[in-house]
Design brief:
Blueprint lengths: L12 E8 L9 H18 L2 E7 L3 E8 L7 H10 L6 H16 L2 H11 L5 H19 L12 E5 L3 H12 L1 H4 L13 H6 L3 H10 L11 H13 L13 H8 L8 H4 L6 H4 L2 E4 H5 L2 H8 L8 E2 L8 E3 L10
Parallel strand pairs: 4-5
Antiparallel strand pairs: 1-3, 1-4, 2-3, 5-7, 6-7
């Protein structure tokens, strides 16, 4: 079933998407994670969306996407994107590509059908997630001699204000997944996340990181080295960034957060599971969230308008969400 996602028209939108395996089964080892990582990049190229960062875990994955508003795509670009999905095409797929290209050149009724079908799959967060999940399921089932459903029915998505602190904090939260899971102490040592890929010199990952930090300083400072340094300071806290140490361990942080009105540094709380980032619906400044209240209410069919809720538990620097999550916010 196609899921409705809150859309931002007339400008690019940023979404945090997350999906899990059925029953949270730990199915993915290094080979599976690497194939899924590559598929995320591949489908993003086809879809015309930009992966800002991502993290692939043993039973789920996160991706922070910038989704542009739909635009005109030439026939040449349509065919390039279509062929991206089939890097090692079968004879049938090769013939299909040749036939589609011929129809587009002829520019008849069939060409319009092809354009409409391909464009309907582009610049759309739901179509992106659907394509990734379907293609990976096909590969996984074939590789493991299994059949049936691999993913839970639904994926979660949060509309994120596409600049500054909201986007930077969400990106850091995603990159810290392996730290929260106890797999590594430093996300640069976990090869299946955007931050580690950027540290190792990956061009697409560095481009995503530059997008995340593009408005933080003047143009002269917008380099991969600068973006990596700022991201690391957010992940670890400025004082601990050089040593690669968190300011407080997760277990201790949870005990402090249980206290009424507890406020901890962002770098500390980001090491806990924070449901705002997966269940908050819309994340950004209070003004940004307020701008989508009516749209969210209408799409959800809610009788009463939602409220703008300030995030608690840390110095989030003005971050707000729609879903207040008054209980079990942290874990």
């Amino acid at each position: 079933m196609r899921q409705r996602r809150l859309k931002v028209y007339g400008r690019s939108a940023v979404y945090h998407c997350m999906t899990r395996t059925v029953n949270g089964a730990l199915l993915f080892k290094d080979r599976e994670k690497e194939v899924l990582r590559k598929m995320i990049r591949q489908v993003a190229d086809f879809s015309g969306v930009e992966v800002l960062t991502y993290c692939v875990m043993s039973n789920h994955f996160h991706v922070l996407l910038r989704v542009p508003d739909a635009s005109v795509v030439s026939d040449v670009e349509l065919m390039r994107r279509y062929k991206v999905l089939y890097p090692k095409p079968t004879k049938y797929q090769e013939a299909s590509v040749v036939g589609m290209a011929a129809e587009l050149r002829a520019d008849g009724d069939e060409a319009e059908v092809i354009r409409r079908k391909l464009l309907a799959r582009m610049c759309d967060v739901s179509e992106f997630m659907k394509t990734v999940k379907q293609r990976f399921t096909t590969w996984f089932n074939k590789s493991h001699q299994r059949y049936g459903t691999l993913w839970a029915d639904r994926f979660k998505s949060v509309l994120v204000e596409g600049e500054g602190n909201p986007m930077q904090t969400m990106a850091a939260y995603i990159d810290l997944n392996p730290v929260r899971a106890g797999l590594v102490e430093d996300p640069k040592d976990y090869r299946f996340c955007g931050y580690a890929e950027a540290v190792s010199g990956g061009g697409l990952a560095r481009k995503g990181l530059l997008q995340i930090w593009s408005d933080y300083a003047g143009a002269s400072s917008r380099t991969p080295t600068y973006a990596l340094r700022m991201h690391r300071e957010l992940i670890f806290g400025k004082r601990a960034a050089e040593q690669g140490l968190s300011e407080m361990k997760r277990d201790k942080a949870l005990k402090v957060l249980d206290q009424e009105n507890a406020v901890l540094p962002r770098a500390t709380v980001l090491r806990c599971r924070v449901r705002y980032f997966s269940d908050g619906a819309i994340l950004g400044s209070a003004e940004f969230v307020r701008g989508f209240l009516d749209t969210w209410q209408a799409e959800k069919g809610r009788k009463y308008p939602p409220k703008v809720n300030e995030m608690r538990g840390a110095n989030w620097r003005g971050l707000a969400v729609i879903q207040g999550l008054r209980s079990k916010v942290f874990g």
